[in-house]
Write a structure and sequence with these properties.
The chain has 210 residues and is mostly helical. Helix 2 packs antiparallel against helix 3. The termini are far apart.
């Protein structure tokens, strides 16, 4: 049983392209760095300790430089980032039923962005439960997850079967039942619509650091 569970976890890690890395460690590292910087800056100012203040200033400068570099690289390589996002989403679509946390993340993303798949609902053909092949015996064949379904404000309870057989319908009828736009284009649209807000947040953070 232990070896089987290890194999499943290994497969999920390879599918999600995380290489076995637990995202919790990222939050721990970021939190630890923020604590150390905050501690150094606070104690350095209170005690007028020049070493701690220099440590605080240098590391804050390094973080600011890394943020600036990341922003420039994101603009220059935006097409590459778009391709990687498409690759990441589609890889995680394959593992949708294998990891409950991943499943909840994908459902939240599709509901929030009102999207389905990376570039469209047909991306769900990558999942063994939702693909449209004749050999697929799943009841969810040629369907999509409930998070792809358009919402009826009058419904208080989520119909988890609303996406069944959705992709067997003509495209015109699909648009009534499910979101047909992909999450990558919807994310790009959100960035364009909120460019001023996003830029303002980054500039505000940069000014605080300076």
């Amino acid at each position: 049983a232990w070896s089987l569970s290890q194999g499943v976890l290994s497969n999920i890690s390879s599918i999600t392209d995380l290489g076995g890395f637990d995202p919790v460690w990222l939050f721990l590292v970021v939190g630890g760095v923020m604590f150390i910087l905050g501690f150094a800056g606070c104690i350095g100012a209170l005690r007028e300790n020049t070493f701690l203040l220099k440590f605080f200033s240098v590391f804050l400068g390094i973080i600011f430089f890394l943020e600036l570099t990341a922003g420039v690289l994101a603009f220059v390589f935006k097409d590459w980032i778009k391709d990687q996002l498409y690759f990441f989403i589609n890889n995680n679509i394959r593992a949708y039923r294998d990891d409950i946390d991943l499943q909840n993340l994908i459902d939240f993303t599709q509901e929030y962005w009102q999207c389905c798949g990376a570039f469209g609902a047909d991306d769900w053909n990558l999942n063994i439960y939702f693909n449209c092949t004749d050999s697929n015996a799943s009841r969810e064949r040629c369907g999509v997850p409930f998070s792809c379904c358009t919402k009826d404000p009058a419904e208080d309870v989520i119909n988890t079967q609303c996406g069944y057989d959705a992709r067997q319908k003509p495209e015109v009828d699909q648009q009534i039942v499910i979101y047909t736009k992909g999450c990558v284009p919807q994310f790009e649209k959100w960035l364009q619509d909120n460019l001023t807000i996003v830029a303002g947040i980054f500039i505000g953070i940069a000014l605080l650091q300076v």
